[in-house]
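[Amino acid chain]
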Amino acid sequence: MNTLTTGEMAGTALFALILALLAYRIIRGMPKMAGDITAFRKRTLVWTQVALVLTVLQLNFKAGDWRFGIILGLIVLFTGSIWLSARRYDNARQAQSAADQQENNKE
């Protein structure tokens, strides 16, 4: 099995940090997104599934070499975290909308 060199580990850590910062900015900006977030949620789910399939294929066909599999795994975590946050935000927004409608109907 190939071992990761110090430079490869540093590059992987830098890539993970960049993805974490991007995910943080995207997740924090969700309330300001114009339009329907459901479409955004569906797109991120598709990209999460694509990245997951590529990761599994990489790990199956490139036995012993984890370098590209690690990068793909980080992308799966990135897209998956954004999808999960978009899903939670969309569900919370729909629940708030339903509660507002019920409140308006009582009046």
User: Anything to note?
Assistant: The chain is about 80% helix and 0% strand. Residues 98 and 104 are 10 Å apart (CA to CA).
